[in-house]
Here is the input.
Amino acid sequence: MIYLLSVFLAVICICLIIHIEILRHEMRRTADELRRTRENSYNRRLTVTLVDKDFTALASEMNHCLDFQQQLKQKNEQTEQQLKCSISDIAHDLRTPLTVIKGSLQLMELEQDFSLKNREYLRICHEKTDCLKKMADDFFELAILESEQTLVNLSRINAVSLIMQFVADNESAISSSNLIPEIELPEKNVYIMADSQLVMRILENLLNNVLRYAHGKFLIRLEQSEEICLITFRNSVHGLQQFDVNKLFERTYRADKSRQNGGVGLGLYIVRLLAEKQGGTVSASLNNSELSLSVEFTAG
Here is the structure.
């Protein structure tokens, strides 16, 4: 009798161990299913192989949660897309009246009967109009970039010639800001795989950052190392308070907390988006009040 009881208890223990192992296996499989569901943006649901009423009910509730998560995700994406479209439309609508205002101010500047005081008022209006137009242009460009509407035409570009052309085109803006550019280019041609128009836009935004904060001189350097090419702008930032160099390429982050220079902090974020659309990366470093902003491209 004792022998039979021992056998019976042993069988029960074995059955319990087997059942526990089955449950553990199903839990591991369910956890893997959840991971794959997350990686697929919640576009799949859990399945249950274990014939167990409670476990099936648990999986069903988890699927209800996934359905709700998917609905929230879709609603958030729709809201974000609508916001981008609204920003694009508003920015586009602002550009036309601002262009008209700027043209009218330029015509007023030609008048001879303005007093010195009124001319100063006119200069301020002209300056603030330029700031507003720059903001509208940045918002419009940002909306297009983030909505994936930008066409990228990658080709083999001579980076040396491109930078020389860029410096020549912006010589007036640089000299009027009392800045001296130091250009460091390789002795031989360097080619990159990029879109020339988008690269020019990157250089313009980097130069705008220099014109806003640099004093005396600044550096533009082109370097090539094996399969990559690096374009770097370096300038002093003595006029700025302490800032986080690791956040300079984030959207709306401003190193100039006082906002004395206008703008909404989109320039460097646009640089990052433009670089990423061409398979490039951006980086920033600060050394002894010298800020370096670099864009890396694939060598052509």
Summary: The mean pLDDT is 81. The beta strands are 155-158, 180-184, 191-194, 217-225, 228-236, 281-287, 290-298. Residues 53-109 form the longest helix (57 residues).
